[in-house]
């Protein structure tokens, strides 16, 4: 009787593990792939599961750079899994899968999680990772540290294409988007900015303050960020009723007012871009200006700008560029990183369109100016924009030649078809990803014109194309070769962006 009871209890426990973790006899469970299949970044992302939500709850001490806390991941398995990977660089203290302690082996930015029993395909899973470390001291396999830390202890988790591994474990690729809750406790008097809507602050028993943020729309891991430091935080409401939160570093100096004169116009710029690209895809607006970063990045709902963009005065060119990314890059993301033209070429051209709306030269004039400014032997014409190569995603050709490609397309199909193409693209691919070939097919379908030669010349072939075509709407001012008023700010913007 005693032996039988022991065996019954053991069988019951084994059954409970099977129920909670899921296993099946229909197939042999296998490890999830350590990469999602991106040719440029083979280990980015992971196979075997899709994430629906991240709950990131952290404590950060700016004085010591110590980051600690947990990330809870809600996901669904897409195959039988004996183990799966997370992209992460900080030291892991523990991992639980569906409340059971799991084995975690970490090396080279990959954490291999092995639950005590296999996971069945099509099961919802909850993964909780506890961790602690100093992000600025951690390097990836190439020796790079994406976490940025200022001399005053300010910290910025901002970069592209990778930043998530320095502060939360994830399926780190744009093809697996999720919603986010981000909560960070910091000392009193320190501010924390992130994506989405502000869910308020909560006092901690040690006198610290916890800042809470929520992203309710699908968001790629690299677009999820935190900025920690001394900021003036401004809250307002946009004409469309959305919350607007802007933040300006206390150390902006002479650039402070120029930054405010630019970023405070965010709702106006979004209103214009919405009239061109369709409804704004997210739930909140804003921007952050900091001395701790040397570039601008289109973090979802709230881009971050280097103070350097405003050293010559107000600069809405960079604001329009980063806000255009909310459609091209954030809502419609790259399917693989070689499709980066769909982000940067489009955002650059959007800044031309914004300049035109401000009476500072037409988009056609600006594109023609840049086409003329690059001689035939310039390196920009030797980059294949449709496949610039790993590490070259932010080459000036992707931005400038990429924007010229869109003007050439506009010249070929006309304004009406061109705008219909853009609006259809953003609507059909909303919260998803896209490929260059899909955009070409859409352009041909809507315009009714064969566009293979145009795209092949501009995106897939080295060498300077013969010209942009002849836009019917090109202003007579172009005949006088006047340099549009927008060029100075556009040049400043593009130089800083290319430095990134």
TrEMBL record:
<keyword id="KW-0732">Signal</keyword>
<protein>
    <recommendedName>
        <fullName>Aminopeptidase N</fullName>
        <ecNumber>3.4.11.2</ecNumber>
    </recommendedName>
</protein>
<dbReference type="Pfam" id="PF17900">
    <property type="entry name" value="Peptidase_M1_N"/>
</dbReference>
<keyword id="KW-0482">Metalloprotease</keyword>
<dbReference type="InterPro" id="IPR001930">
    <property type="entry name" value="Peptidase_M1"/>
</dbReference>
<dbReference type="InterPro" id="IPR042097">
    <property type="entry name" value="Aminopeptidase_N-like_N_sf"/>
</dbReference>
<comment type="similarity">
    <text>Belongs to the peptidase M1 family.</text>
</comment>
<dbReference type="InterPro" id="IPR050344">
    <property type="entry name" value="Peptidase_M1_aminopeptidases"/>
</dbReference>
<keyword id="KW-0378">Hydrolase</keyword>
<keyword id="KW-0031">Aminopeptidase</keyword>
<feature type="domain" description="Peptidase M1 membrane alanine aminopeptidase">
    <location>
        <begin position="313"/>
        <end position="458"/>
    </location>
</feature>
<dbReference type="InterPro" id="IPR014782">
    <property type="entry name" value="Peptidase_M1_dom"/>
</dbReference>
<dbReference type="InterPro" id="IPR045357">
    <property type="entry name" value="Aminopeptidase_N-like_N"/>
</dbReference>
<feature type="domain" description="Aminopeptidase N-like N-terminal">
    <location>
        <begin position="52"/>
        <end position="223"/>
    </location>
</feature>
<dbReference type="GO" id="GO:0004177">
    <property type="term" value="F:aminopeptidase activity"/>
</dbReference>
<dbReference type="Pfam" id="PF01433">
    <property type="entry name" value="Peptidase_M1"/>
</dbReference>
<feature type="signal peptide">
    <location>
        <begin position="1"/>
        <end position="27"/>
    </location>
</feature>
<keyword id="KW-0645">Protease</keyword>
<keyword id="KW-0862">Zinc</keyword>
<dbReference type="InterPro" id="IPR027268">
    <property type="entry name" value="Peptidase_M4/M1_CTD_sf"/>
</dbReference>
<keyword id="KW-0479">Metal-binding</keyword>
């Amino acid at each position: 009787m005693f032996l039988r009871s022991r065996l019954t209890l053991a069988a019951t426990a084994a059954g409970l593990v099977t129920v909670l973790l899921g296993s099946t006899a229909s197939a042999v469970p296998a490890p999830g792939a350590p990469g999602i299949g991106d040719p440029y970044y083979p280990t980015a992302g992971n196979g075997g599961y899709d994430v629906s939500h991240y709950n990131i709850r952290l404590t950060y001490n700016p004085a010591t750079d110590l980051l600690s806390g947990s990330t809870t991941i809600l996901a669904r398995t897409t195959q039988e899994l004996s183990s799966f990977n997370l992209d992460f660089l900080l030291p892991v203290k523990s991992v639980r899968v569906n409340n059971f302690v799991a084995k975690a082996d970490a090396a080279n930015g990959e954490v291999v999680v092995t639950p005590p029993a296999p996971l069945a395909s099509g099961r919802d899973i909850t993964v909780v990772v506890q961790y602690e470390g100093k992000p600025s001291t951690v390097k990836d396999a190439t020796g790079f540290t994406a976490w940025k830390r200022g001399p005053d202890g300010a910290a910025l988790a901002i970069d592209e294409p990778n930043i998530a591994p320095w502060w939360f474990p994830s399926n780190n690729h744009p093809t697996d988007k999720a919603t986010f809750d981000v909560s960070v406790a910091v000392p009193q008097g320190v501010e924390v900015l992130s994506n989405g809507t502000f869910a308020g602050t909560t006092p901690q028993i040690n006198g610290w303050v916890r800042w809470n943020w929520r992203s309710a729309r699908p968001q790629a891991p690299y677009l999820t960020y935190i900025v920690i430091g001394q900021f003036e935080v401004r809250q307002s409401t946009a004409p469309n009723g959305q919350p607007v939160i802007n933040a300006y570093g206390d150390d902006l100096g002479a650039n402070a007012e120029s930054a405010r004169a630019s970023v405070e116009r965010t709702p106006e710029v979004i209103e214009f871009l919405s009239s061109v690209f369709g409804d704004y895809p997210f739930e909140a607006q804003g921007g952050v200006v900091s001395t701790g970063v040397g570039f601008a990045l289109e973090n979802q709902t709230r881009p971050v700008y280097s103070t350097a963009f405003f050293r010559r005065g107000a600069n809405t060119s960079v604001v329009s560029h980063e806000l255009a990314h909310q459609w091209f890059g954030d809502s419609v993301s790259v399917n693989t990183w070689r499709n980066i033209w769909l982000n940067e070429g489009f955002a650059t051209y959007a800044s031309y369109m914004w300049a035109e709306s401000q009476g500072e030269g037409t988009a056609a004039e600006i594109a023609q100016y840049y086409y003329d400014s690059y001689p035939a032997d310039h390196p920009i014409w030797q980059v294949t924009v449709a496949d610039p190569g790993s590490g070259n995603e932010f080459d000036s050709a992707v931005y400038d030649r990429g924007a010229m490609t869109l003007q050439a397309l506009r010249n070929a199909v006309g304004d009406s078809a061109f705008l219909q193409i853009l609006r259809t693209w953003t609507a059909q691919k909303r919260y998803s990803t896209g490929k260059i070939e899909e955009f070409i097919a859409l352009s041909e379908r809507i315009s009714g014109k064969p566009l293979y030669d145009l795209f092949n010349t501009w995106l897939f072939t080295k060498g300077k194309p013969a010209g942009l075509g002849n836009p019917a709407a090109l202003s007579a001012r172009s005949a006088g070769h006047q340099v549009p008023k927008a060029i100075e700010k556009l040049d400043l913007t593009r130089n800083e962006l290319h430095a990134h």
